[in-house]
Design a protein that fits this description.
The protein is 48% helix and 20% strand. It is α+β, with helices and mostly antiparallel strands.
Length: 277
Amino acid sequence: MAITAADVNKLRQMTGAGMMDCKKALTEANGDFEAAIDILRKAGQKVAAKRADNATNEGVVLISISEDGSNGKLLALACETEPVSKVADFNNLASALLEAAVSNNAATKEDVLAATLSDGRTAEENIIELTGKIGEKITIAGYENVTAEKVVSYIHSNNKIGVLVAFANTSGADVQEVGKDIAMQITAMKPVALDKDGVDAVTIEREIEVGREQARAEGKPEAMLDKIATGRLEKFYKESTLLNQQFVKDSSINIKQLLEQTQKGLTITEFKRIALA
């Protein structure tokens, strides 16, 4: 059957796909709109498979904090190029994914992907469809769901880094300001853990080995290498674990001391940082 310009435009309005893709799909489907939509979705799957190994360093980070401040959800939707990260459809999808995460109280990225959006299809299906429409890889690069007595958030000005900080023992104190300062510190200083007890064994062993090699390169005696490496590990803890880091706004105190000055007994139970880079 003849495919008219009106038919092509109608399918384009329904799917957002390009004119030529819509014409090709309608032609292949003999004018059947539902079949044409399925063809376009399958095209998205093919694009997704073809570009599966492509790097996704661009995108947008979004955060939602519950009304009572006790829960925060952090989501990063990633793409391959900066222009795509500015496209309305991409940002609308990111917002829809976060809304679905909130409404379903999604615990994991897999829960978000399985959630149903307002169009009745899953988040994963919507991502695949937009992948086909835009022509580059789109993926949920990270998702975190944090619950605490108080959760404070921060999104960096480039919209590519987001942080959640969970507080306990606030005793009703307003921790919003100090929370933002600490979240900004996490953004910039990239701590690997809350305290040294949270540093994984692989990281510890790597740092010890680096310390040994540095000492050996400096000509230190072999018998002293382990002791020197252990001393350097303590420096690593000070620089790379949040509670032991110097506060960037006042280097005379560390974050643990900042908390105590803000409110006696105030603690951080966890933090989450997602960055697109």
